[in-house]
Amino acid sequence: MNPAMKVKTAIANLITLPAVGRSIARLLHNKIKIRGITVDTSSPLIQARVKAMLFWQLYESAEIRFVKRYLPPETDVVELGSSIGVVGSIAGRIIQGQRLVCVEAQPEFIPVIRRNLEINGVKNFMVLNYAISNEDKTVFFTSGGTNLTGKVGTGQDKQLSVKGKKLSSILKEMSIGRFALIADIEGAELQILIDDPRSLGQCHCIIIETHQAIHSGKTYSPADIQMLIEDLNFKLIDRYGPVMVFIRPNP
């Protein structure tokens, strides 16, 4: 890491300390503005550090920047890993009138997502409590109790069971045709790219935060995931670290 980046990282760590987040939330009555929307942070599930990150515009900054820059306004959007509804609210404001389907595996965050979509005037949305899987079956989900953690695991580390759904099943359930995909699902994207690639047949834009993950005993890096997406005739047009944007003009 170069010296300038070290300084930036040190400053970011200081201004996002939990004590800072608690003070910000108290002063703003848990209504924090970020990139043109308001986020209700009153849920105890939202960490104080996240509240500070929201205030300083550091929360999911690359993903938000790419959504604002590249998301087509005339498209239905499917968001996988909706967390507390920040990115979904920004996307919903862009595609006003089109359908927004938010999918989140952690059940306790479903009302938080709905609340933030509603206070930002997002219309025509649906919030679904599913975990992305390669089969329509119950899966085990390890929740860290905050919006920063949580991933599909095995029965050995389970904390709760969640209904697993293939992306193709969600698209069929919601009657989605041509769509854009936003995804931040901690490596579960492999369940789509390897086991359910046909679900992306009518997808024309992907904005994704990639993660190193294991599938069938093989480890896939973000670079490997990029190649899997490009093998489906998508073109990488922008990236910042593990956050990437792909387009396919004529799906």
Strand content: 25-35%
Question: What distance lies between the first and last C-alpha atoms, to the nearest angstrom?
Answer: 40 Å
Query: What is the CATH architecture assignment of the largest domain?
Result: 3-Layer(aba) Sandwich
Largest sheet, in brief, is: 7 strands, mixed
In oligomeric terms, what are we looking at?
A: single chain
| Secondary structure category | alpha/beta
Number of domains: 2
Helical content band: 25-40%
Q: What are the segments in which pLDDT stays under 50 over at least 5 consecutive residues?
A: none
Q: Tell me the number of helical segments per DSSP (H or I, 4 or more residues long).
A: 9
Radius of gyration over alpha carbons?
Answer: 18 Å
What is the name of the CATH class of the largest domain?
Answer: Alpha Beta
What is the CATH topology classification name of the largest domain?
Rossmann fold
Number of strands: 15
How would you name the CATH homologous superfamily of the largest domain?
Vaccinia Virus protein VP39
- List the helices and strands in order: HHEEHHEHEHEEEEEHEHEEEHEE
| Coarse shape | globular
Q: Mean pLDDT, nearest integer? A: 93
List the strand order in the largest sheet. 5-4-3-10-11-15-14
Care to describe what's here?
The protein is an alpha/beta fold and 251 residues long. The chain folds into two domains: 1-59, no CATH class; 60-247, Rossmann fold. The protein has helices spanning 3-15, 18-27, 48-55, 61-70, 86-94, 110-119, 167-173, 189-193, 222-230, and strands at residues 31-34, 37-40, 76-80, 100-103, 125-128, 131-132, 138-142, 151-152, 160-165, 179-183, 203-209, 213-215, 218-220, 235-240, 243-247. Helix 4 (61-70) packs parallel to helix 5 (86-94). The longest helix is centred in the first third of the chain and has 13 residues, at 3-15.
